């Protein structure tokens, strides 16, 4: 690749992931759906099969899954420089938004109102996730056995089984099934057709006295060992910052997690909010670096191993099972999100209209999210609002 071509790719990565960092609401499942729309359907940077492998790899390492997928895509598209550019551009816009909210929180003791925006955004996210599941599922579920594994993984996830257990069991099941199939043909593996807030007066006192080093190590530890969703992050933060160190109150912690969940981009920007509350701008920078740095390291280590995994018969079977389970986990999150998002007639209409627009016009999902935000705000705060 020439230097000019490499620079062009890096600019494309920077623009795409900076835009997603500003508009990707809805959590990891929605982020992955938007990335699939952009890098597979619109730009053709990779096949669905390749993206599925990257999703599976991101699910197998600790840290924020959608951020790690962005980093994987950057590495796949632009090498080591692309790895840094894609990850940083996805994270930094969300960090800037969270910083602005944290400043208002510390200054005024309250979170700004975002209810109208989320009221409209959540229903259209359902359509985006459903479309991505359909497209990725056609590539991932290539046999009756994989379909059965996917359905079992979905049922287990909805029943509350730990995500790592679901992924490991799915990978083992496919590997064992194919091993048995090689010894004696099994019908089950026949191919399918590829189808409000508490005041925060005195914030920053804890880490001002101790320095920023302890804050960095707390978030570095969390970023190194945490698997799962923002709710798992809540458990880690509560254990360390509320119960052990007494740096935050329960109310402050819930506000921090709410900001991470309700703003675009990575949910782990909760760390930015907490860092600002505890240590101002320096605390925000240190906490953000601590929680996201392991993701870059883990992707840098695991990314180059994917071709070797695909060349191994056993490892490829495990990866196929993990891919099917990853989509099941994404579907489970989508179902939970749908239950929370579609709460009345307007939200049902928004979800249906979003699906129709995606299917008929293949509209960029970012425009759909922005449209949902505008409609939701108008419905919530307009003259006809209750």
Backbone structural class: mainly alpha
Strand count, sense and barrel status of the largest sheet are: none
Overall mean confidence score, pLDDT: 82
How would the global form be characterised?
A: globular
How many runs of DSSP E, i.e. beta strands?
0
Oligomer: single chain
Please report the number of helical segments. 16
pLDDT < 50 runs, ≥5 residues? 185-203
- Share of β-strand residues: under 5%
Work out the radius of gyration: 21 Å
Helix content: over 70%
Topology pattern, helix = H, strand = E: HHHHHHHHHHHHHHHH
End-to-end gap? 59 Å
Structural account:
- The chain is an all-alpha fold and 386 residues long.
- Helices cover 78% and strands 0% of the residues.
- The chain has 16 helices and no strands.
- The longest helix has 44 residues.
Task: Based on the model shown, name its key terms.
386 residues; mainly alpha; 16 helices; 78% helix; globular
């Amino acid at each position: 690749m020439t230097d000019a071509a490499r620079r062009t790719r890096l600019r494309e990565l920077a623009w795409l992931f900076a835009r997603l960092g500003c508009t990707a609401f809805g959590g990891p499942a929605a982020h992955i759906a938007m990335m699939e729309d952009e890098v597979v359907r619109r730009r053709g940077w990779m096949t669905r099969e390749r993206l599925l492998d990257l999703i599976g790899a991101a699910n197998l390492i600790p840290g924020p899954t959608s951020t790690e997928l962005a980093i994987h895509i950057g590495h796949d598209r632009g090498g080591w420089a692309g790895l840094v550019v894609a990850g940083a551009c996805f994270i930094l816009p969300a960090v800037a938004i969270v910083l602005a909210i944290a400043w208002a929180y510390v200054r005024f003791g309250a979170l700004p109102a975002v209810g109208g925006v989320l009221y409209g955004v959540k229903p259209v996210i359902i359509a985006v996730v459903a479309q991505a599941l359909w497209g990725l599922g056609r590539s991932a579920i290539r046999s009756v056995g994989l379909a059965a594994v996917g359905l079992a993984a979905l049922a287990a996830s909805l029943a509350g089984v730990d995500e790592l257990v679901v992924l490991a069991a799915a990978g083992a099941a496919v590997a064992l099934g194919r091993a048995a199939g090689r010894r004696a043909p099994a019908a089950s593996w026949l191919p399918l057709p590829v189808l409000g807030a508490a005041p925060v007066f005195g914030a920053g006192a804890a880490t001002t006295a101790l320095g920023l080093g302890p804050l960095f190590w707390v978030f570095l530890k969390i970023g190194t060992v945490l698997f799962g969703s923002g709710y798992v992050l809540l458990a880690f933060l509560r254990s360390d910052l509320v119960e052990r160190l007494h740096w935050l109150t329960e109310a402050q912690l819930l506000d921090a997690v709410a900001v991470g969940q309700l703003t675009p981009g990575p949910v782990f920007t909760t760390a930015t909010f907490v860092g600002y509350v505890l240590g101002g701008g320096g605390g925000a920078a240190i906490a953000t670096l601590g929680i996201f740095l392991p993701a870059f390291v883990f992707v840098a280590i695991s990314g180059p191993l994917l071709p070797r995994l695909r060349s191994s018969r056993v490892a490829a079977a495990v990866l196929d099972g993990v891919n099917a389970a990853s989509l099941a986990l994404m579907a489970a999150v989508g179902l939970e999100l749908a239950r929370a998002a579609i709460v009345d007639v307007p939200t049902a209409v928004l979800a249906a209209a979003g699906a129709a627009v995606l299917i008929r016009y293949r509209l960029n999902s970012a425009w759909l999210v922005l449209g949902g935000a505008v409609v939701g705000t108008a419905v919530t705060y307009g003259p006809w609002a209750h």
